[in-house]
Amino acid sequence: MPTDRNGDSTRQGKTTAGSRRPGPPTSRVPAEPAYHVHSPGGIDETGINVAFRADEPGLTSKVEARLTYDAHKSPDDLLFHLAAFMVDENGTVPRHDPYYSVHHAWIRSKDLSLFRQGRRPHGSGSLDETIIADLPLVVDEIAKVVFVAYIQTGAVEHKFADVVDGLVTFSEVLPDGSTREFARHELDADYGDGHRAVIVGKLIRRAHPAGADEWIFVESGEGITSLIEAGDLFGVKFV
After folding, report:
1. How many independent structural domains does the chain possess?
2. What phi and psi values does residue 58 have, to the nearest 5 degrees?
3. C-alpha angle with apex 225: 106 to 70, nearest 5 degrees?
4. What CATH number does the domain containing 65 carry?
5. How far is CA 25 from CA 29, 174, 203, in A?
């Protein structure tokens, strides 16, 4: 596949129908999402999938990843969640410590930089599920934060084709508390047979000459079988 689980991939999503790539920004708050990571109907494999141009400042404060879908049109027993794994240069959580991740059964990372809120483990509560990444709190040994959308295993084995209007959006949290959406991934059935999870994208740490680190966003769209396989990839053992 054109993606790499631990490195920067070379796959870029197409813009949604009728949209276009914006020109150089005149401010940090564009009128519409600056980058469409993936939309149903195929993926363009010729571009570079970094959400920010080299001359655009990276992310330095908080990032909000939000998972939504149409629960009224999707199966009633569908349990759909968002997870994040904090990995080092080796591509695994430090010392295989599972608390450097958040998912439906764990809401806060060990270093307190990731916080998950919204839908509860059994699917009740808010239909939106959000993970906040407080980037200044991320410990130095973390090189990437990897986001995974997944269907929780249950009595009925649902697949992505059962999810109606599934969407993961990524936004920068601005100083006044408002958000600026910069990327989105529309979830569909393109990830491969038997795949009930997808690596949606990654925040990658980038050293800055001025001293403070910046982060850039890289899309993925790589289908995997389950949250358990994601754990195997990133060094977290689910029991």
Report:
1. 1
2. -80, -175
3. 70
4. 2.60.60.30
5. 8, 16, 21
